[in-house]
Design brief:
The protein is built from eight helices and ten strands. It is α+β, with helices and mostly antiparallel strands.
Length: about 350
Amino acid sequence: MMKKSLFLRIFLGYAAVIALLVAGVEFFAPRAMRRHHVEERSASLTHMAVVLEAQVIPFLTGSGAGDLSGLVHAYGRETATRITVIDRDGNVLADSEREPRDMENHLLRPEIQASLRGETTMSIRRSSTLGTEMMYLSVPLRSGGDIVGALRLSSYMKDFETLMGALRADLLRVLALATVVALILAFFLTRSVESPVREVIDASRRVAGGDFEAAVSTRRSGVFRAFGQSFNAMTTRLKDMFGEVSRQDEEIRSILASVQEGLCVIDDKSRILISNEAFRRLAGGEAPEGRHFWEVLRSSAAAEAVRQARGSGKDATAEAEIGGRDFLVKVTPLAGGSRLIVTFCGVPRP
């Protein structure tokens, strides 16, 4: 269960990152493409307006020769752009897609009003004439410093929306393929990460259980190899330290066993940590380790000596009668003061 849980956690983390990236691309890419198209189309319309201005203005000043409608229709077909020429009174003089006589006065159109004030505007709105969303670029037409009319170029947004639909479908297909590939890579990457992590966890549990022979593989490369080497060095060091402690413990026990007087070591709560055989005989033969000193030896004099040594941090002595025998009890604080050595030296009675 732990192995499965570890794999799922790592894999689901990768999957969440992939999902966020895919959602981000799906959310921002269409907006970026639309913005780019609008900017690009606006620049194209602006360039076209510059080309047409010089050819259209003569028709508004009365000096033009030829067919204005024919000129507008020809440019409109070649550029797939709707072109409208409006005079200063808002009357439509020519339109590349509609007959001017069938069109209403454009004086109240916002972009035409701005152009007749001398402003160049670009906007996207729904056309009341064609009933579809369009991009409008309206520029003022000047002659001799006076505004004689407006030239409006418009492009169908439905063409772009159709293109965007196709691009979005292609984008979704690409994202779906990229997601599948990314999830497959995430699966194998998770396996490559999960395996050494699981190995370290298993080895750590063995070490915690006292098996200092546990080791992890160093055949991997990169950081996992360095980690494996460090882990194995750590376990080797722990093994050496544990062996040294064990040897020291055996030496201490051998020393204690050779001491004829009763001896024990108690902690800050007066629990017996270590004792020798002579002390065990005083305690009645039972193993006293883990029990309280006053519980094992019911001697008020010995207990008072322990209290004095703990309070002063210095050696304390007392005479006590234990089991019908007289003893000189000596209590010595160890370094740090939390542990005490208590020795019992028999005193012969007169």
